[in-house]
Amino acid sequence: MLKISSFLILLFFVTTVTFSQGIDFKHIPFEEALELAKAQDKLIFIDFHTEWCGPCKKLASGPFKEQQNGEFYNNNFISLKLDAEKEGKDAAMRYNVTAFPTLVFVNGDGTLVHQAVGIGPGKNMIGFGKDALNSATTKYSLEKLQDMFPEKQNDEAFLKLYYNKMEEFGADVSKGMDAWLKVQTEITEASPEMMQFLLKKQSDIELGSEAEAIFNNNYDYYISIAEGRDKMALQRFRNGVFLKSLKKTRRTEDADLMNIIIDRFQKFDDIKGKSSDNLYTYKLDYYRFSNKPNAFKSLAEKYVDSLINAKTIKNIHKQDEEHYAFYSKDKEFGKDATTDYLLSLYKEGQKANNLVEAITSVGNDYLGFIKTKKEIKTLNKWIKYCYKLIPGKYWAENLQADLLYKEGNIKKAIVLKTSAVNKMPFTVKKKVNYQHELNLMKEANKE
Question: Cα dist. 154→157, 177, 179 in Å?
């Protein structure tokens, strides 16, 4: 590692002034920040972000701009913003950053001290920073505990310390808690104490875990002793764990966890999942995550055909007209954005919209696997059907744009993608992702 020059230290002090607003993010390489951290005995605060990440932009335009946060962070840390897909790619890999925003604190040796994923820390940036300072001086650093964990799988006392410390550090506690549950002798599984423990830790429990097994094995007992809110929480428990695990597996594309999701969906009546999902969509995800293109395409074609053949377009439009007439009674445009959006949605057709979204969602994944002219023809058939349901619908335009781009027709793809992005309402949470895709298309067209 290069020695830091006295000129660099002087330059840093000269350029570090009292900012009236916001966190002062340094535009220096990560390795250089490590040297500064050593020289000043400070932690480095890193905001790992990407260009297309909407929540990242919320942090940047909100909490990061606040004066009190700026004063605290500028006095206590060296702050960096690293694009995890560009200049910060190596650092992101070093700290296993896979979701954005990820906020981490490291010391001058590069040791991970504290971390969090998402925009939660933005609610109390100063408290988040103080937790990092406390973590840096504790006997057990996050990295040291993680290094010890594999060799301590039968050490009940260590495992309890481990998952409690992971919680303090803002790290994932599920593995540590599960390891502790397998060996713990502190709480009887069929007891009110264990029921309360599981209810309290529900947000850290995943399908296929020891905690889930304990819950399933003792569910009847827990229900028999529970009252009021506890009973309601127990009845919603499985579905909550299911939805959390579903969100994780779709983020990580974990085929093994997706297989467990399919098993639980078929096994338990109290698991409802998301209204837009069914056994078909879960199996499609499993084939996709398992990289089984032929199985995926075969099932996708069967599923979309079942959607197309379920009802005639005329019948769908008739039902949607009746629904709109019922919903729009005593409502009018111009009162507020939400009412306007819902009126527009129901006027287009709720069932038609749901169908278009379901077909194009499968179509987007199908596009990643197609190789033959027959498959391209199949995808075009799905797109044309969506246009018949709702002419010019942005989901269909977006899919057609991606297909045209794959075929090399970049100019037409840009026109359609632009139209789709412009039509997307405020309710499309990942609109920024589609804008990013459009920007990439435009860059490719310049080459």
Answer: 9, 13, 8
Give the pairing type, strands 77-83 and 102-106: unpaired
Please confirm, yes or no, whether 386 is among the known catalytic residues: no
Token pair 């379920």 is found at 310
Same structural domain, 144 and 234: no
Output the tens digit of pLDDT for each of the chain's 447 residues. Answer: 444 454 444 444 444 444 447 999 999 999 999 999 999 999 999 999 998 888 999 999 999 999 999 999 999 999 999 999 889 999 999 998 888 999 999 999 998 888 988 899 999 999 999 989 988 877 777 778 888 999 999 999 999 999 988 887 777 899 999 999 999 999 999 999 999 999 999 999 999 999 999 999 999 999 999 999 999 999 999 999 999 999 999 988 999 999 999 999 999 999 999 999 999 999 999 999 999 999 999 999 999 999 999 999 999 999 999 999 998 888 888 788 888 888 888 999 999 999 999 999 999 999 999 999 999 999 999 999 999 999 999 999 999 999 999 999 999 999 999 999 999 988 887 888 899 899 999 999 887
**DSSP 8-state code for residue 273:** -
Q: Of the residues 33, 56, 205, 386, which is catalytic?
A: 56
How far is 228 from 397, CA to CA, in rounded Å? 49
Furthest CA-CA distance within the chain: 77
Sign of CA dihedral 266, 271, 276, 281: negative
Q: Could you give the CA distance from residue 372 to residue 229 in angstroms, rounded to a whole number?
A: 55
53 as an active site residue: the answer is yes
Contact 447, 408 (CB under 8 A): no
How many whole angstroms from its chain centre is CA 371?
30
Residue range(s) defining the domain that contains residue 156: 140-186
Nearest-angstrom CA–CA distance, 68 and 72: 6
Can you tell me the distance from the alpha carbon of 321 to that of 346, in angstroms, rounded to the nearest whole number?
8
How far out from the chain centre does Cα 146 lie? 23
Residues 436 and 430: their CA atoms lie apart, in Å, by 10
Give the end of a domain, one of 137, 156, 174. Answer: 137
Which CATH number characterizes residue 124's domain?
3.40.30.10
Does one domain contain both 82 and 171?
Answer: no
Closest residue by Cα to residue 57 from 68, 45, 67, 65: 65
- Count how many domains the chain has: 4
Q: Which of the residues 37, 43, 53, 181 is marked catalytic?
A: 53
Whether residue 16 is contained in a domain is answered as yes
**For residue 40, what are its two tokens?**
């000043």
- Please tell me whether residues 27 and 108 are part of one structural domain: yes
